[in-house]
Amino acid sequence: MNEIRNDHKLMKDAPVGVFDSGLGGLTVVREIMRQLPEEDIVYFGDTARVPYGSKSNDTIIYFSRQITHFLKTKHVKAIVVACNTASALALPTVNEEVDVPMIGVVEPGAIAAAKATRTGNVGVIGTQATVSSGIYTKVIGALDPTISVIGKACPLFVPMVEEGLVDHPVMMQMIDYYLGSMKESSMDALVLGCTHYPLLRSRIHEYLGDAITLVNPAYETAMGLKNLLAENGLLRDARGTKKQAAADLYVSDLPERFKEFANSILPIDIDRVKTVNIEQY
After folding, report:
1. Which listed residue (14, 83, 154, 229) is catalytic?
2. N or C: which terminal CB in the chain sees fewer CB atoms within 10 Å?
3. Domains, the chain, with CATH or none
4. For position 6, what pLDDT does the model report?
5. E strands of 96-206, at which residues?
6. What pLDDT sits at residue 9?
């Protein structure tokens, strides 16, 4: 009996694995740190092979398999697919192949959007691959077939965020360029369907105003993860106020650039990011 209890405690104390095609998934990590401060995190950003949005379905599944194999070597108790493209195209397949619970960013965001709309008109912005996949339309339609979904790809948002241009005047010009027609539509909820986009939340809100609810899938995913861990008896016990949860960050390329970005948005100091040859997994 003691051995069973100890094994369960080891599982509860194991880290949560998180992965993304690059930097954007750190917005999901930030929300996990805020909502589940007891949980250790192992993060992998596939910075050598970003972006995923231009890759085929089979390639994204292949990459996702490699990354989940790597995370499993870190003995994670759950895996968060913090990438809209991989959530849309790879999660259904990979989820059947691993023995730990998995959650993506699409379903939590879709559920929140369906709850938020009053007009039955929801907007989704994301990469070309995410918007073209129609995954949000499919998931929201399954929740409520009466809801209409308007999708808009905003490809320049990601490089502008990564170049630190969030507060530059050109950012509002790009927001107007992409969202002008959506602003004039009857949508009353907008899904920020790319993990970089929560970093633009205040600027988008400034442009669209209070009448349109912005849905942040990073926050919704963190809350979904909390529920998933609770359902599986895997929520970590309280550590005490003086102990800080650990975050181990891995990338497939450019660790210094990644560390700089991580330290600009995470609530803890990251002193090292490790490089992994993901092709080995």
Report:
1. 83
2. N
3. 2-104+220-280 (3.40.50.1860), 107-217 (3.40.50.1860)
4. 46
5. 102-104, 121-126, 148-153, 189-193
6. 67
